[in-house]
Amino acid sequence: MTVNEFRVALTCDDFNAAVAFYRDGLGLDPGEVWTENGTGQMFFAGRAILEIFDKSYASSVDEIEVGKKVSGQIRFAFQVDDLNAALKRALNYGAKLVHEPVLTPWNDLNARVESPEGIQITLFEVQDIDQE
Question: Sheet of 108-114: strands edge to edge?
Fold first, then answer.
């Protein structure tokens, strides 16, 4: 399994203060902003990405990936080349399956697992747009 990208999605009580801290206080480079079903902001941190969601946006992602609110304040997301292989490997090493793979509105194939220590983790494979 090759992990191509690591993202940490942080759900915050005070979204604007968190954005200001990571943007201005730490100097992270802002990326995309999402405003459907709440608000999310991407930040670039070198080769990693920090996503900050308000509670509504975090709930909408859980709804898409799992069908209900399940994650806490922190959820990891790993982009992989082969979702099925990555999912099998994670399960073999102690992850619990939270939800089978689903195709998201942003055209990623996402599966949700829980790590042995209880962290919610999304494994996702970007789908080729030409696959129709």
Answer: 29-34, 40-45, 48-53, 3-11, 74-80, 120-126, 108-114, 96-103
Which residue matches tokens 């990326």? 31
Domain edges within the chain? 3-126
Q: Is this structure's pTM higher than 0.90?
A: no
pLDDT averaged per 10 residues in sequence order, the chain, 132 residues: 86 92 88 95 86 94 94 89 93 93 96 90 88 51
Q: Would you give the DSSP letter of residue 87?
A: H
CATH number, span 3-126: 3.10.180.10
